[in-house]
Structures are given as C-alpha cells and as structure tokens.
Amino acid sequence: MNRDNDKGKVLIERSLILGGLQVFALLIVIFRLYYLQVYQADKYKTLADENRISTRLIVPPRGGVYDRNGEMLATNKQDFQAMIVAEQTTDIKTTLDAFKKIMPLSDEEEDKIRKNLKRNRSFVPIRIKNNLNWEQVAQILLNSSDLPGVIIDEGLSRHYPFAEQTAHVIGYVSSVSDNDVKDDPLLEVPGFKIGKSGIEKLHEKKLRGRGGNQKLEVNAIGRVMKEIERNDGVAGDRIDLSLDIRLQNKAYELFGEESGAAVLLDVNSGEILSFVSAPSFDPNLMTQGIKAEDWKKLNQDERNPLINKVISGQYSPGSTFKMVVALAALESGVINANTRSFCAGKMFLGNHAFHCWKKEGHGYIDVAQALQHSCDIFFYETAQKLGIDKIANMARRFGLGQKINIGLENEKEGLIPDTEWKKRRFGEPWQQGESLISGIGQGYILTTPIQLATMVARIANGGYEVEPTFNKMTENNKPKFNKIPINQDYISIVKKGMFDVVNLTGGTAFGSRFNYKGLKMAGKTGTTQVRRITMKERQSGIIKQEDMPWKYRNHALFVGYAPHDNPRYAVAVLVEHGGSGSAVAAPIGANLLLEALKLEDTSDNK
Amino acid sequence: MYKFYETSIKNQPPTLKEKIQNLSFFYIMLILIIAAMGTVMLYSAANGSWEPWALNHLLRFGLGFCLMIALSLIDVRLFMRYAYLFYFATLILLVLVEVGGHVGMGAQRWINLGFMKLQPSELMKIALVLALARYFHSTSLQTIETTKGIIIPALMVAIPSFLVMTQPDLGTALMLIFTAGAIFFAVGVQLWKFGLVLLSVLVSLPIVWNLLHEYQQNRVLTFLNPERDPLGAGYHIIQSKIALGSGGVFGKGFLKGTQSHLNFLPEKHTDFIFTMLSEEFGMIGAVFVVLLNMLLIIASFAFALRSASYFGKLLAIGLTTNFFLYVMINISMVLGLIPVVGVPLPLISYGGTVIISVMASFGIILSVNINRNLNIGKD
After folding, report:
1. What is the pLDDT of residues A358-414, one digit of tens each?
2. pTM over 0.80
3. CB contact A12 to B (< 8 Å)
4. Which entry of A277, A319, A435, A582 is annotated as an active-site residue?
5. Secondary structure of A120-135 in HEC code, one letter for each residue
6. CB atoms A18 and B182 under 8 Å
7. Which residues of B touch A41 (CB under 8 A)?
8. What is the extent of the structural domain holding A73?
9. Pair (A283, A216) in one structural domain
10. Contacts of A333 (CB under 8 A, 6+ apart)
11. φ and ψ at A33, to 5 degrees?
C-alpha cells in the first residue's frame, strides 16, 4: 500500500514535470513567433514583396528624328503581332491550323512556336507572327471565332521613311548585343532596340528617353494578378538635324548606280544639308532583324553599301588638293599671282619623268590658269620649290589630315604627310619626288569627302574655320568661327582660279556651269588613279577607262561652292571608279549646288 | 494545503445526469474555438469559399464532436477492460495495411472502408496509450523500476512503431515513440534508462541515416540548411518563414495573405495552415491559437491529476501528450524549428482521420474527468 502511494506520487510528480515541459515548449514557440513576426518582420515583409511584386519596365517611345524643315526621318510605327495564349484555347494544334489557313507559316516558324509553347507557362502569350499590316490584322480579327487563344499585340517599331536615302546619316536601331554597355535597365528588356549607328547611336541617350515601370502582383507561377503601380517614364527627345531631305534625296538620286559620296555644307554655319554615301542599304531591314543572306550580300558587295564613304572612305584628293598647294605657295612667296610656268607635258626630276595629264602641255600659265586647266606640271614645280612641310601646314589649316568629329562612328583621319611623318613611319628621309606628286594630291595624301567639303567651305567663306555639323542652327546659336591666319588676297586668287574652272572655256568643269538668276558656281575637279600607269601603257596608248574592270577605273572628284560672289554652299563629290572628275563628279556637284540655290527661292528653307 | 487534484474516492460510477453536468464547458469551448479558427482559415485557403475544404471540415468536426460526447459518457472502466483488445485489433489493421493497404501519398497508410479511408496508425496513437495505461496501472513501482518490467511495454511500443515506420511514416512513428516515452517517464522509469536509450540512438544514428529514404534524408538536410535547395525541398520552409514574418504583429488581414493566396505557400490547407493563419492574423492570431492549445493541454493535465485512478491519470496524460506533440511538431515545423515531417495541426488543418482521432482523445479525456472520483481496481 505504501509502495502504491509512492507509485501515485511518482506519477503526479512526473506529470507535473511533463506538463511543465509542454507549457515551456509552447512558450518557446511563442518566443519564436515574436522573433519572426516582430524582430524580423521587416526582412520578411521585404521578401514577401519581392515574391509578390514583379516590376516590369515600360519602354518609353523613342524620340523622332527630323530634317531642318520638320520632315520626319526616323519615327515609331505601330506594328502588330499575332500571339497565342495556350490556356485560352482547347487545342493549340487546331488553332494553329486555322491560323495557317489565313496566313501561311513556315516550318521554322512553327517549330519556334512549339518550342516556346513548351518552354513557357500556359498563360504566357507566344508570338506567332510579327510585322503584320492592317489588312492581316483585320483578317485575323474577322476569323477570331476560329482562332481561340489568338490575340493581337501592338507595339512600336522604328521606321525610316526615307530608308536608303538617310541610312548613313540616321543609322539604325537594333537589338542590344553583348558588347553594348548596359548602363540602363531598359537594355535588359527583351526586344529593346538601341541605336547601332549614325544619329541613332550618337544621340542614343536623348532619343531613348527614360523608362517607366509597372509594379505587378504575380503569384507563385508568375501569373499577373493585378497592377499595383504604374509610371510611364519620359518619352525620348526629338532631334532636329541640319539635313534637308530634299537635297539629300536629290544627291542620292544623282548618284544613280554609281558608288561614292557627296556632302553639301552651309559654308557659314557648317550645317550639313546633304550627306550621301552610295550605294546604301535599307535600315528598316536592320531594325526588323536582317536575314543572314541579305546581310552577306551587303557585306560582300564590292561597292560597300555598309560603309559610310563620306567619313570612312579615304581617297587621294588628286587635283582638288591643288588649291591648298597654291595657297601655300602664295603665302611662302614661291609664286605670286602673276608667276608663270611653262608646261611641256612632262618634266624630269633626275632621270624620272613626271607627266601632265595633257600630253601636249599647257604652255606658259599662271596659278589661276593652272587651276582652271588643272595643269600638273605647274604644281609639280611649285611643290618642288615649296617642300612638303609647307603644303602640309596649309592642308591642316583647311581641315585635312584630322578628324572633324561630326559624331558618327568610324570617322577616319585621312593623312597629310610631312618629313617628320615619313621619318617616323618609314625611318627614311622625304624624297623630292614625293613632294612633286603631293603637289597634285597623290602619293601618301589621303582625305575623306567630308574633309574635302570642309576645305572648300573654308576657302569659299573667305578663310573661316567652319566645322561641319548635323545640328540644326538657329539665328541664336550660329557659331562664330575663327579666322584662319592667311592673307585674304591669296584666297581671292585661288577662288578666281576655281571660278575659271567652271566658267571659262577650257576649264575642266566648264560643261557643268550654270547661271541661275545670275548665280554661278566655282569649283575644282579631280581624277585620281587607283593603279599606276606603266611605261609600256604610255607608249602603247593608255587603255580607255571604260575598257577596264570597274575596280581599276579612276576615282572622280569635284569640290565646289556657290554662289561665287557670296558663297553659301560648299559641296564635295566623290565617285568611286567613276572615270573623270569633269565628266562624272562635276555634274553631280553642280546639280546639287543648283538645287540648293533653287530651294532658297521656293521654300521656307532656312 | 489545498491540492486541486485531490479527490474524494467513490466506487459508484456517476449517473448519466451527473456525467452531463460534469462535462467541462470550458474545455469544450476551447475545442470549439480552435475548430472555428480552423474553419475560418480553410475558408480563406480556398480564397474565400466554403468549398472545397471549410464545409467538409465543419462536417467532420461535427462527426468528431458527436464521437467525443459519446466517448465522454462511457464508463472509464470500459476503456480499461477493452484496452488490450483494441490495441491488438489496431495492430492487426496495421499489419493489413502493410500487406495490402491503399496506396496514397506514396506511402501505404490507409484501409479503404468505402465511406472513409481508415488510417490505422492514427488509431494506434490512442490504442497504444490505452494499452500502456492499462499495463502500468496493473504494475507495481518495483516492477516498473526493474529492467524486466519495461520489456513488455517497450515491445508494445516497438512493434507498431516499426510497422508505421516501414510504411514509411516517420512522423507518426516518432509521435508513437515520443508519446510512449512520455508515459514511461510519467510512471517513473529511471532517468538513466532514458539516457541509455538516447545514447544508443546517437550511436546508431549513422546506421539509421542510411536506412532513411532519400526524401527523408533530404528533409533533414534541408532543415539544417534551407538555402541548400531554395526551389526544391527548402522552398517550403523559406516560403513559410517569409509568410509568417511578413504577417507582422497584426497580420495582413483575413483573405489578404499574399504568400498564401498567390500560392507561394505550399500545402496551405494542411500542414502549413498555421503559417497562413499567422500571415493573415499576425502574431496576435498566432499567439492566440498557441495559447488556446496551451490552455487545452493545461486543462487536460488538470483533469489527469484530479483523476482518482492511476489508469485515468495515465490515460489522460498519454492522450494529452499525443495532442501536444501534434501541435508542437506542426508549429515548430512551420516556424523552421524542426524539419518538415508532415504532421497536421489538429482541428485546424484539413484532414479526416486526425480530426476524428483527436476528438476521440478529447472524449476519453473528458470521460476520465467525469469519472475522476471512480476508483479502479488493479485487475
């Protein structure tokens, strides 16, 4: 009985301990609740919000690009795509078959759709076809009863109404690639496009705008439940260019099938009115994602449609360089306005013969006449007396041999050689013969068409350091340019020569002269060899250009300005393998200048 | 000094009228409130709908409630008389499950009775307590304190635990063992014996580890480091803690738990219902539910201690401990204190067998209380 009492006592004691332990354990639970729900509440609230809130960026509409008169050069076009939502259709296959009856799908496209359907959850819309036009959209909507789960999604895509004509200026936008700097979360948005070349790239930041965002509540599998917050962001700025699309189109049209480049500048403000590199490409193809074969075709074309020849093409300036040589010679006193040289068709330096383009020679001529007839002998002799360094110095003052930095990619420096350069580059002293051929813009000298345009603009405006730009200027922000340190008289002598080139019988561009209400142009032609003329050829008669393969033909150049008495426009034209400057390049330059003058009258062109 | 558990001993069982008068109103109220909370949460789990869970839960609770009242009115001596019979019958059912039970949830746990699926392991929780209470009731302290004296009860625990473990249902097996351990402790088995068992468990741990199924191993590993597999097994624990923590003090409001309603929280109507409750009603709601359960446990212990009979005391303690283990394991699990073991929160989680077995336990505990003055002989 005593032991029984003990048994009962033990049970009571131990039960109290057991009960106490259980209560204690539950108190620990309460403490844990406190820890999680009070002490760590903020941390978990954040985590819960991260779970539930999905932030999506809203892509702002990209800014438009306009020409100087407000003509739209780059814009956003509404575009439609057909999408399918798997969960909204009972049978995907039937729906797709019905769709195919309206609009055929290639096997590739179908494969892609099927893959995407498998990869994504059933509520995610999968693209069936993009770039639909209104008619196609209407067709889909009309048949919507046969197409359960098919929806039309509208978005904005970049559009270039002038396509080829503006491709090398505006450039294009395309998908973000791995090499692009990811400085903006917008770049991570699937399908987002950024400027890859031209103005689109130069003004990318301005055009892009600021992305907005949308906070969405999503569930565990990512389905959107509702929108919590929305901020639309800021649309991209518009960009107004100095370009005049009418002159741009005109220049492009003048090139026809030819390959080359043309630039037309305002000689006082530096505004680029026309900027053409031919042939060109359709930037709209690039935005949509160009097909591999099309890309290959563009890349392998010997006329290089993808290269912006205005700034990336480096060519010997040929006779268009003679103004620089003349100015340098006048300044150094090697010649004066009346100094005459005798051209006999060829001259010798040591036992090496230097030929004038005119076998019979030009006789006694002064500097203006030498320019007018583009006599080579005159400039050989002048250059021989001058030496390369003085020529180079003058060339640089007129914008050659250095980047202008108009902001487009792949701008080239060109090359203005001098004795120091030769030593540095080849470790050899400068040869006199090299001065001679430099005197007619051949040899090492390389220039880009934009540099030539700059050069001629600086001559035309009387020696001001104008710089080409794509920015549209207003009366208020017209820049003041420094005067190039040079005697005004020398410029006048050169300009007289350039006027004679066009307007005097025997001038190399006489055939391209015009007289529009008394306004005339001045200019200078150039024809440069891309291959040496051998001794044998000189003896047996030079092969006609037309009989040579295209890539061996001469480059044709022309630089000019108008009107002669009060210059407003300067032009530089280069036609690759086009033949002679007078026959091919001068007419293009003349036409462009004439068009610019005509437009002054007909419009509000400012 | 007054001791609340001292009672006057009678040999006459109470009349039906006395029994009904002695039903603890407070106790039943606690049960009703907890079950009501469960119904409310299941309504929320279905995004504000009685279907498919809340209504069923209420119906099952109603059934369980009737069972509880019926059991509470039974003479406690009958429980003792049929304790072994019930235990063996349940054991046979367990074997039947092992041989050809219904396959569900990847484990053989059910016998399909047509109108409901019977889970013998759930019955065993009650049967084991009954059998052990009867055994120790009839055994002297001297015998209990000998090693020989606890071999038989140890086998009574080991056999069903082993069967349940091979189902495999580690959670239930552990609950059987812990419940039995609590009973062994209560009846006065020396502490050093517990120490010895603990030691041998520690020694055999590596062996047991290898016997565990891979998913069980993963649960333990994931518990130790939830970040190990944040999208897989660790996902549950991480999401549960996020839901709980983000609930804060006052909660996000009824039907407004983002983690629950956006489906980040898994199993929100069963094992993780306490998480959902804590998310929507905050710490206030969570602590309220813990306190309700704590009161229920304290009241049950009070009933046990007031009972004049050793059998009644032990029966109530065993069943209460079993209930405590449900609550403790479930809540600790969702709070990330222990691995995810798949134990529901009684009266709140959705699930048929548990609510019936827990209500049956409450019925028996109530019966112990009603018959607290009844002396039971040693037969």
Report:
1. 888 899 999 999 999 999 999 999 999 999 999 999 999 999 999 989 989 899 999
2. no
3. yes
4. A319
5. CCCCCEEEEEEEECHH
6. yes
7. 245-249
8. 57-240
9. no
10. none
11. -60, -45
